[in-house]
Structure formats: structure tokens, C-alpha cells
């Protein structure tokens, strides 16, 4: 391939005629094209306006602040495909189609700028010479990249058929449309080259040129007819594509990008990632309904979420509920909300009296298209694997929490064991029903740790949490942790009987009212004792105190009606221990000659991105052979206890804890390491239930205590 100057012809000749063999770029053809452009964009505008009107039927929600951060999110997730590329095959496939099409879009914009502006008004045909050569090459390569992506997509959808993909006619139509546009782009180009007797510079369109060679066996007359046919199919296909970019399958191109732009910026930082909405306590005084039982009770952004779903199934593939045969699929959930919205909201908009509109109920006891069964949203462990995987940042968990809130706060309809949990939390501030006065009784006297009432002058408050306060196994973890701190000279205190449960289970179980009572009590104690730094051994406590407490403090009131404060820095014990090891305050000298695997707690990992500290600790223990489970870090698999599931019986499907224990077993590890009291219980139960003889489970603090120089 040579540059334009080397072909020995005037540079102006190294170009191509617009509307070659079609009828020229002036007169009828130009205006004919403008009519098609108008129809395509009119339909596109119609579909977008219709979707916007539907979304606006949802409740208000602030998602327009910090536009610069939102643009960065679009660059990260849409342009750089941050989540899509986490999967190799699907990522490469999607990137090929996306980037190839983006390049073709730019190539098309350039020729439109020439034909419909510069040439029209200034007789300036600027796509010529070397610019033409590069423009041709980019267009040709981009077309081939799209073609390869389409082959990969077709192979996956119709040959390998992963279970997470459900193929509807619209999927086949969308794929076929892009396929036709791409192929006819090449055939039109190849026929033009063949009809033009293979100009030497057209090798800059290598694929079109190669395809032109076999086509040259046709007569020129036949080629001209075939070229016109190919060109028109290409042209009409492109405008059908533009018209459909705002709706159904192809709509994800536009709506997904919008969804990312209006996404939850909290999720971009571990300081607030995946925090739930907290109901303003003032609303409890006046609101007539809580939670969501009708689709219009979602916010406009939650409605947009359901339209943005591409049905890629990544959420479902990572969902512990789905993978253990529960009725919950996060993909189905989002699609059912969309179906319900599409049926109900247009009817609401047309009705004179919205209260008379009858439609498929959003929450339905029986399986029905467009409805969500309570067993679905109660199966959710709030593990956030779905949200972490979703390439368009759909927020599944809040939608299910909203339904739980409706069930609990409006209907008092929940599993009996959850009702008991709430009663225990109300009466004794712990979910187990033990006396609240005994909350600090576990504390060994020889540790020298006091309550803040006895001595508020401490480096940290150790927020013990309900599990370590009352559960014997987790009391050992708390004791080991305090001994580590004692050795390192870190002074901590506890709240003892003044500590209330963090409220995580109440909040995620849908009992927002109870959550408010618990958080108020704890925040008031933090303030009363001037607490500035808190350590938690429970990731659920760590997460809720760090995030939802902060939200609540901004709007809640104390018992006297005064403002609440959240002036605390919250740490998880893995962070503290890791720092103590790094700083040399504790020395790990006793070897542990075992193969150890670490289980990432959802509320430590995905919610707070604390992945390195626990691994740093384990690798610092002499003798440890560390192995990683197949699902780890942000793709870690839930133990089954999150989202208040710790306090709910698991009647449906197989047990999540056993699924995860088998993950650990398959590594060949003899030890599991957990850093969460719920994970401790669930995986220890898993070992017992599966009768695995050569495996034990310990908290990271216990490993460190055993290994450290005493
Ligand atoms: S949060 Fe976890 S359990 Fe719930 S839907 Fe998402 S992946 Fe499934
Ligand atoms: S919710 Fe997200 S991850 Fe799940 S199918 Fe839809 S786009 Fe894919």
C-alpha cells in the first residue's frame, strides 16, 4: 500500500463518487435520503419521548448532580467498557461490535459532513488523497471488526447457548440487522471497486478489494444491478437501525448509556458503595405507604434501570440465590419490573382516574409475567454480586428492599422467624432474644478492657456486634482480637449493655422503623462518649455504621429532638491487624503449616473493596500455603447470610453455605479463613453438613493470635 502521491494521478482523483451508481449526490437522491433521515430520527425521538414520559411517572430522585463525575462514569463504563471486559469472550465480542460500530459511525459522520455540508454549500470535496486512503482503511477495518464480533455473538447465542441468555425474536432481529448492514457495506464497496476496474489505491480498503476479485467475474451490467440492490439494503438497514436505537434490544445502546450517566455515584467509592436509601424519619409521621407495591412507587431512575437491561444475564450468573435453585433471578426481576411498567404506566397516563386502573400486580404470590413473587425478593442475600457484574450499573438490591419494606411495614407479612428476630431486636436490642443486660458478659476480665462508661479514654471503640456478644463461637474471635490489640498496646473499650444491634438485619429485612430506633441509640452513645474511631469484627456492622448511619444522622433526630451526629471513622479488624503487622507492633512467628483459602465476605469485599488486608495478613503467617478459590475478590460467592437471610430459614433450593463450602473444598485447602461472624457460622455449618473431615474454619483474628509472638 502506497501513499496518494505515489499513484501517479491527481490527488483529487483518489477519492470516491458519492452515490456512485445510485443517482448522484444532487437532486432527488439527496432529498430522498433526507426524508429517510427525518423518518428515522422522528421515530427515534418518538420512542425516547415515550420512555421519558413513562420514567417520569416514577417518584423523584436526585441523579443530576456532579455532571463531571457522571461523564467520567460514562467514559469508564460505556467508552472503556470497564465491566463488560471483565469477561473475556463476551467482553471481546461486545467490544468488537461496540468499537467497530463507533468507528463506522465516525466514518459515516465524516462523509455526511462532506456531502451534506461542505460539498453542498462550498463545493468542497475534502475526502480525497491521503485522507481518503486512511478514511477508507479505517472504515474497512472497523467493518471487519464488527463482522468478527457478530460471528462471535452468533456462535455464542446459537451454538454454545449459555443458559443465562434467553433468545427472543428481537435478539435475532437485532443481530441480523447489524449483520446485514455490515455485509452489505462490504458488498457495496466491493462491487463499486469491481465496476471501477480496481483502482490501485483501493487496496486501502483491503477487505472490500479482496471481495471484489471474485465479483469481477460478473458482467458490469450485473454488477451495477447488484450494487444498487446491496446499497439500498445497506442504506435502509442503517436507517432502521437509527430508528430503533431508542427501543427494545437496540435501545440498550442509548438507554444503557443514559442509565450509567444517571447512575448512583455513591457506588463509585467504597465510602458509600451500595448503601441503601434511608427513609427520612420525618416521612414516618406523614406517609401513607412505605416501600413499593406498585411500579409507579419506584423512582424514575429505578424505572429507567429496568429499560436499560440488556438481558446479558451476568447478574444471574453470579447470583447465589439463582445458583442454588431459589426462585430469584436478578435478570428476571428487572425484566418483570419493566413488563409491569410497560403495562401499567401507559394505562395510568391515559386514565381519568388512576385509582381505577387495573393491571398485573407487581407483587404476586403466584408466578406471573410482569410480577415478582415474595419468595424472589426474600431469597436475596443482598450480596451485590448482581450489581457488581451488571455492565450498565442497574441497582437490584434497593428494588427488593423496597418490596420488603412494603411487606413488612404495610402488611406485616414476613416469615415467622423474621418476625421473632424483629421482636428480639425491639425488646433486647439483639436478634437472638438474649437479655440486653448480658451483652457485655462475654468479655474476659483478664483482658483489662472496660466499657466506655467505666473508661471513655480509648484509642478505639470496639463495636462488638450482636454475633460476637452472644454467639459462643464468635466470642472466641472477639477475645482473640482483643488479645492482639492488647499485645500491640492499642487501647479499646466497648459499650457493653449500652450497645444495640447495628440494625443491619432490621434494615435489610425491611423494618426501617426498627432500624431507626437502633441506629439512634448507637449514634447517641457514640456522641455521648465522644467516640471518633470504631473497629468492627463484623463487616455488616462495619458497613452499616460507615454508610447508612451517616445518611440517617443527616436527617434523624435524637430523643430530645436535637440533631444526630456521625463523626466517626470506622475500621474493620482486618485493616487494623494488617497495619499492626506492617508497623511491627505484632510479630507472626508461629508457623501454620496448612493450606489456607480466604472467603471474601460480601460486605467487606464488594461493598467496601477490602480485599488486600486479609490476604496480606494470611501471607504474613509463616508456613501458610495460600490458595484462592475460583470465585474471589469482586466475584466472590456469598455465604448465604446477608440481607437478613441469617435469620430466615432456607426452605427453597439447595443451601448457599454448602455451595460456598464446596468452592473452598475444591481448592484442596485444609483451612478456611473468614473475617465475618455470619460467614464463620455459615461456612462452619457447611463443613459439618458436608462432613468434610480435613477442613476447619477460623476467623482471621484467630489465625493471627495463634501465630503471633505472645
Ligand atoms: S444481591 Fe446477591 S442474592 Fe440478591 S439478587 Fe443480587 S446476586 Fe442475587
Ligand atoms: S440487570 Fe444488568 S447484568 Fe442483569 S441482565 Fe440486565 S444488564 Fe445484564
Structure notes:
- With 710 residues, this protein is mainly α.
- The protein has four domains: 75-259, no CATH class; 291-411, Fumarate Reductase Iron-sulfur Protein, Chain B, domain 2 (Orthogonal Bundle), CATH 1.10.1060; 433-572, Rossmann fold, CATH 3.40.50; 578-707, Rossmann fold (3-Layer(aba) Sandwich), CATH 3.40.50.
- Helix content is 53%, strand content 5%.
- A five-stranded parallel sheet has the order 1-3-2-4-5. A four-stranded parallel sheet has the order 7-6-8-9, with helices on both faces.
- Strand 8 (671-674), helix 27 and strand 9 form a beta-alpha-beta unit.
- The longest helix has 35 residues, at 88-122.
- The radius of gyration is 31 Å and the shape is elongated.
- The model has no long low-confidence stretch (mean pLDDT 95).
- Residues 318-321, 328, 330, 380-386, 396-397 line the site of one iron/sulfur cluster.
Amino acid at each position: 500500500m502506497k501513499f496518494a502521491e505515489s499513484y501517479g494521478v491527481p490527488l483529487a482523483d483518489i477519492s470516491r463518487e458519492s452515490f456512485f451508481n445510485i443517482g448522484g449526490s444532487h437532486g432527488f437522491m439527496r432529498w430522498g435520503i433526507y426524508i429517510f433521515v427525518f423518518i428515522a430520527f422522528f421515530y427515534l425521538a418518538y420512542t425516547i419521548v415515550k420512555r421519558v414520559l413513562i420514567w417520569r411517572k416514577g417518584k423523584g430522585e436526585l441523579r443530576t448532580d456532579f455532571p463531571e463525575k457522571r461523564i467520567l462514569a460514562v467514559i469508564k463504563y460505556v467508552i472503556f467498557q470497564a465491566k463488560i471486559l471483565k469477561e473475556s469472550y463476551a467482553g471481546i465480542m461486545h467490544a468488537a461490535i461496540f468499537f467497530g460500530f463507533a468507528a463506522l459511525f465516525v466514518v459515516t459522520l465524516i462523509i455526511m459532513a462532506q456531502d451534506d455540508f461542505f460539498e453542498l454549500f462550498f463545493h468542497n470535496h475534502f475526502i480525497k488523497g491521503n485522507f481518503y486512503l486512511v478514511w477508507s482503511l479505517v472504515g474497512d477495518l472497523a467493518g471487519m471488526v464488527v463482522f468478527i464480533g457478530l460471528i462471535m455473538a452468533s456462535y455464542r447465542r446459537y451454538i454454545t447457548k449459555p443458559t443465562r441468555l434467553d433468545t427472543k425474536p428481537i435478539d435475532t432481529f437485532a443481530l441480523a440487522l447489524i449483520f446485514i448492514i455490515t455485509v452489505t457495506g462490504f458488498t457495496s464497496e466491493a462491487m463499486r471497486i469491481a465496476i471501477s476496474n480496481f483502482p490501485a489505491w483501493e487496496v486501502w480498503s483491503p477487505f472490500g478489494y479482496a471481495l471484489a476479485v471474485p465479483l469481477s467475474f460478473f458482467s458490469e451490467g450485473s454488477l451495477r444491478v447488484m450494487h444498487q440492490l446491496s446499497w439500498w439494503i445497506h442504506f435502509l438497514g442503517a436507517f432502521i437501525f437509527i430508528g430503533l436505537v431508542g427501543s427494545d434490544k437496540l435501545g440498550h445502546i442509548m438507554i444503557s448509556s443514559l442509565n450509567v450517566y444517571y447512575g448512583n455515584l455513591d457506588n463509585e467509592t467504597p465510602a458509600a458503595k451500595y448503601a441503601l436509601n434511608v427513609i427520612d424519619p420525618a416521612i414516618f409521621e406523614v406517609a401513607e405507604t412505605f416501600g413499593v407495591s406498585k411500579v409507579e412507587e419506584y423512582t424514575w431512575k429505578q424505572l429507567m434501570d429496568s429499560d436499560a437491561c440488556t438481558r446479558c444475564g451476568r447478574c444471574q450468573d453470579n447470583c447465589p440465590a439463582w445458583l442454588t435453585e431459589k426462585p430469584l433471578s436478578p435478570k428476571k426481576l428487572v425484566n418483570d419490573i419493566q413488563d409491569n411498567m410497560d403495562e401499567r404506566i401507559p394505562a395510568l397516563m391515559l386514565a381519568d382516574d388512576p385509582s381505577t386502573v387495573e393491571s398485573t400486580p407487581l407483587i404476586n404470590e403466584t408466578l406471573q409475567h410482569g410480577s415478582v413473587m415474595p419468595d424472589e425478593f426474600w431469597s436475596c442475600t443482598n450480596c451485590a454480586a448482581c450489581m457488581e457484574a451488571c455492565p450498565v450499573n442497574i441497582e437490584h438490591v434497593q428494588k427488593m428492599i423496597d418490596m420488603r419494606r412494603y411487606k413488612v411495614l404495610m402488611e406485616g407479612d414476613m416469615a415467622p422467624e423474621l418476625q421473632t428476630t424483629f421482636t428480639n431486636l425491639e425488646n433486647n436490642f439483639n436478634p437472638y432474644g438474649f437479655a440486653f443486660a448480658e451483652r457485655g458478659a462475654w468479655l474476659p476480665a483478664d483482658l483489662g478492657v472496660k466499657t466506655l462508661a467505666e473508661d471513655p479514654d480509648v484509642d478505639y471503640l470496639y463495636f462488638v456486634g450482636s454475633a460476637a456478644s452472644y454467639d459462643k463461637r464468635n466470642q472466641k474471635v472477639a477475645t482473640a482480637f482483643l488479645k492482639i490489640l492488647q499485645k500491640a498496646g492499642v487501647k479499646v473499650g466497648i459499650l457493653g449493655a449500652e450497645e444495640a444491634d447495628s440494625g443491619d438485619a432490621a434494615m435489610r429485612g425491611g423494618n426501617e422503623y426498627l432500624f431507626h430506633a437502633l441506629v439512634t441509640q448507637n449514634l447517641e452513645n457514640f456522641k455521648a462518649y465522644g467516640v471518633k474511631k470504631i473497629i468492627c469484627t463484623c463487616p455488616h456492622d462495619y458497613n452499616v455504621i460507615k454508610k447508612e448511619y451517616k445518611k440517617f444522622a443527616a436527617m434523624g433526630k435524637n430523643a430530645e429532638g436535637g440533631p444526630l451526629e456521625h463523626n466517626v471513622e470506622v475500621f474493620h479488624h482486618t485493616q487494623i491487624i494488617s497495619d499492626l503487622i506492617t508497623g511491627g507492633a505484632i510479630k507472626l512467628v508461629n508457623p501454620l503449616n496448612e493450606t489456607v483459602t480466604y472467603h471474601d465476605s460480601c460486605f467487606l469485599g464488594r461493598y467496601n473493596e477490602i480485599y488486600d488486608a486479609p490476604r496480606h495478613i494470611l501471607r504474613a503467617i509463616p508456613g501458610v500455603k495460600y490458595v484462592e478459590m475460583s470465585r474471589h475478590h469482586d466475584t466472590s460467592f456469598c455465604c448465604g447470610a446477608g440481607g437478613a437471610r441469617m435469620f430466615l430459614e432456607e426452605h427453597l433450593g439447595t443451601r448457599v453455605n454448602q455451595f460456598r463450602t464446596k468452592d473452598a473444598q475444591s481448592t484442596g485447602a485444609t483451612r478456611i479463613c473468614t473475617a465475618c461472624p455470619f460467614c464463620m457460622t455459615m461456612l462452619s455449618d457447611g463443613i459439618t453438613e458436608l462432613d468434610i473431615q480435613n477442613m476447619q474454619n477460623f476467623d482471621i483474628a484467630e489465625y493471627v493470635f495463634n501465630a503471633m509472638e505472645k
